[in-house]
Specification:
This protein is of the alpha+beta class. It folds into two domains: 214 residues, Lambda Exonuclease, Chain A (Alpha-Beta Complex); 68 residues, no CATH class. 39% of the residues lie in helices and 17% in strands. It has eleven helices and twelve strands. Helix 6 packs across helix 7. The chain is globular, with a radius of gyration of 25 Å.
């Protein structure tokens, strides 16, 4: 089925673009919905889609010419998109075309696609190009024919929305290594993504928060959503089953035992290393290296320079989470 055009993005401001994204789910968001994006959680995305609030993860935005970006990496990813797309065209001989629009699935209007480039191939059929930048620290995620799962989901989502059969993910790794990998359409994956997306969008439409999960992204999102608590005189009665609390303490006990076993092995290795910084066990390297850290002695500054301390001291509020068993419990 031919995709619809939700809106043109020509000369569109970033704020307006973000508003249009609330009309559905984009390819860069579907991995978060299935719990496989380490930076964004379903609950955080739900808050943004419903307009309840935009979650502030505490990171300072990167500002260029008055425009805010989530991070410096996000800024450079957008800036380098043009050069990466042009280089892909040069080394493959494929023609690429910018599409200044947001596509919309004809059957599922909440499925949106804002692609980097359309590959124009009148002989073999058109495809999609996603141009990425990757830090050298993430090079292992791109070894061989590997593509991070979030990007696999993204291009499968785009192929579903625009009804195409293939995509390329072109990546510049560490600023100086270029790689491109072809991804074929997988209808089984697409069906699973559509089901997950549909369930999530039902939560948006009915204003029902999705269930929380055990990811660090969800933990950070909850801390950002509820940064400061009410000082309750009477504890709130919670609905989580008592059996889950009992299971929690069992898991904590198992985790403590595992931590001790891990520390025991680490201590054995440290004892063998002694004053040495590097060693090997078979093919595994073991490092106990020197590190130097410079910290401001705030206690000393406060005692000797109280006015200076008061001028530059930054007060922040955070929440400490604890679970305490009843007397006689575990």
């Amino acid at each position: 089925m031919k995709p619809r055009i939700l809106t043109s993005t020509t000369n569109m401001s970033k704020d307006i673009w973000l508003e249009h994204r609330k009309a559905g789910i984009g390819g860069s968001e579907i991995a978060a919905i299935i719990g496989l994006n380490k930076y964004t959680s379903p609950i955080e995305l739900w808050y943004e889609k419903t307009g309840a609030m935009r979650v502030n993860d505490g990171r300072e935005p990167y500002v260029v010419n008055g425009q805010e970006w989530p991070s410096e990496a996000a800024y450079w990813g957008t800036v380098d998109e043009e050069s990466n797309a042009n280089h892909f065209a040069a080394v493959t001989g494929l023609k690429v075309q910018r599409r200044n629009c947001i596509y919309q699935h004809p059957k599922y209007p909440w499925m949106l696609a804002n692609i980097d480039r359309l590959i124009i191939d009148p002989v073999n059929g058109n495809g999609i190009l996603e141009a990425k930048n990757a830090s050298s620290y993430l090079a292992k995620e791109w070894e061989g024919e590997n593509i991070p799962f979030a990007y696999q989901c993204q291009v499968q989502w785009y192929m579903a929305v625009i009804d195409l059969q293939y995509a390329y993910v072109a990546t510049r790794i560490g600023g100086n290594k270029f790689n491109y990998i072809r991804v074929e359409r997988d209808n089984a994956v697409i069906a699973a993504l559509i089901e997950a997306g549909s369930n999530f969008w039902d939560c948006v439409v009915t204003n029902t928060p999705p269930a929380v999960d055990g990811t660090e992204a969800t933990s950070q999102a909850l801390s950002a959503i509820y940064p400061e608590g009410i000082d309750d005189d009477t504890p709130v009665e919670l609905e989580l089953p008592v059996s889950d609390i009992e299971h929690y303490f069992e898991l904590k006990g198992e985790a403590k035992e595992l931590d001790e076993k891990i520390t025991f092995i680490e201590n054995q290795l440290k004892a063998e290393l002694g004053a040495h910084q590097r060693g090997t066990v078979g093919g595994t390297r073991v490092n106990w290296t020197n590190t130097t850290t410079t910290r401001l002695d705030t206690k000393e500054v406060k005692a000797k320079e109280p006015e200076l301390f008061a001028k530059y001291a930054k007060v922040s509020t955070s929440r400490r989470f604890t679970i305490t068993p009843e007397k006689g419990g575990k």
